[in-house]
Amino acid sequence: GQNIDQPTEMTATEGAIVQINCTYQTSGFNGLFWYQQHAGEAPTFLSYNVLDGLEEKGRFSSFLSRSKGYSYLLLKELQMKDSASYLCALLDTGRRALTFGSGTRLQVQP
Amino acid sequence: DADVTQTPRNRITKTGKRIMLECSQTKGHDRMYWYRQDPGLGLRLIYYSFDVKDINKGEISDGYSVSRQAQAKFSLSLESAIPNQTALYFCATSDLMGQSTDTQYFGPGTRLTVL
């Protein structure tokens, strides 16, 4: 099976940088996804890591270390609209389905 | 127009009733998924399908059934709804081939309440 851990809640200030961590235990996976979800809405794709290292997409970056069972999502120049839940998910090697963590609710304050 | 649509968006029903949630997509993707989301538990996989003839159970399939009527349509049924099936249900699609392989795209969700 797979076990994914994320902090439940985080608070950050508008304009700042925030790092949301994700640790996992699994026997194998194809890649790690990050999704953003505003309350009551659908998750939307942010980033995907297959290999170790950093993937950068505008204000969002995601990092993966397979040997450490660790990923993070980095959000720069925070905006109020970034207040949302951020979901870490592992892609199963066989089913090609996602196993999600419980999500981190980020509140951006003025 | 939205690429992945779900109907209904909201539904209130009673214990024991049969309910069908529908999902349609115009993305041309082969793979479709049903998840449920409960507060504090994240999204959990109910069923998934790689094509019309391929249906597979996820972690929490008990009490649910699905039908893949066409490549673009994947419906979820609750044969006899119970209160602990109250949740937010999401359909998702992904592409077997193509540039965005494995990225899942979610529909807007159906909020189901079972009284």
What is the structure about, briefly put?
The complex is a heterodimer of chains A (110) and B (115). Chain A has 110 residues and is an all-beta fold.
Verbal overview:
The complex is a heterodimer of chains A (110) and B (115). Chain A has 110 residues and is mainly beta. In chain A, strand 4 (31-37) and strand 5 form a beta hairpin. Chain A has strands spanning 3-5, 9-13, 18-25, 31-37, 44-49, 53-57, 60-65, 70-75, 84-91, 98-100, 104-109. In chain A, 0% of the residues lie in helices and 57% in strands. Chain B has no helices and eleven strands. In chain B, strands 2, 4, 5, 6, 9, 10 and 11 form a seven-stranded mixed β-sheet that branches. A four-stranded antiparallel β-sheet of chain B has the order 1-3-8-7, with no helix packed on it. In chain B, a hairpin with a 3-residue loop joins strand 4 (31-38) and strand 5. Chain B starts with a strand and ends with a strand. The model of chain B has no long low-confidence stretch (mean pLDDT 92). The A-B interface holds A 30-31, 33, 40-45, 48, 87, 89, 91, 95-103 and B 31, 33, 35, 40-45, 48, 50, 56, 58, 88, 90, 94, 102-109, 111.
Q: What's the overall average pLDDT of chain A, rounded?
A: 94
Considering DSSP H and I runs of 4 or more, what fraction of the residues of chain A is helical? under 10%
Low-confidence stretches of chain B: none
Structural class of chain A: mainly beta
> What is the N-to-C order of secondary-structure elements of chain A (H for helix, E for strand)?
EEEEEEEEEEE
Mean pLDDT of chain B: 92
Q: Considering DSSP H and I runs of 4 or more, what fraction of the residues of chain B is helical?
A: under 10%
Number of helices of chain B: 0
Oligomeric state of shown chains: heterodimer
Rg of chain A over CA atoms, rounded to whole Å, is: 13 Å
| Helix segment tally of chain A | 0
- Biggest beta-sheet profile of chain A: 6 strands, mixed
| Overall 3D form of chain B | globular
- Our estimate of the beta-strand percent of chain A is over 45%
Q: State the distance separating the first and last CA atoms of chain A.
A: 40 Å
Fraction of residues in β-strands of chain B: over 45%
